[in-house]
Amino acid sequence: MRGLLARWWARPAVRRRAAVVVAGAGTVLAVLGVFTGRWGVVVVAIVLLGLAAALGPARIRR
């Protein structure tokens, strides 16, 4: 099962889709945080955007 998950996650399309979803959530949180003045939400959004960059298909190592 672990090998199956590793092969599935190694596909660039899966990693790109995950990165897009996380980046979208981070962007929405950043906009909401800035407009409502909740700077803690902005910090969480920055962390999510960094995670999205790390999830991208360019990070696949073989």
Strand count, sense and closure of the main sheet?
none
Number of helices, where a helix is a run of at least 4 consecutive DSSP H or I residues: 3
Strand content bin: under 5%
Alpha carbon gyration radius: 14 Å
Low-confidence stretches: none
Question: Tally of extended strands?
Answer: 0
- Helix coverage percent of residues? over 70%
Shape: elongated
- Secondary-structure element series: HHH
- Tally of discrete structural domains: 1
**Terminal residue distance:** 19 Å
Q: Name the average pLDDT.
A: 88
Q: Structural class, from helix and strand content?
A: mainly alpha
Structure report:
This protein is mostly helical and 62 residues long. The protein has one domain (2-59). The chain is 81% helix and 0% strand. It is built from 3 helices and no strands. The chain has helices at residues 2-9, 12-36, 39-55. α2 packs antiparallel against α3 (39-55). The longest helix is centred in the middle third of the chain and has 25 residues, at 12-36. The radius of gyration is 14 Å and the shape is elongated. The model has no long low-confidence stretch (mean pLDDT 88).
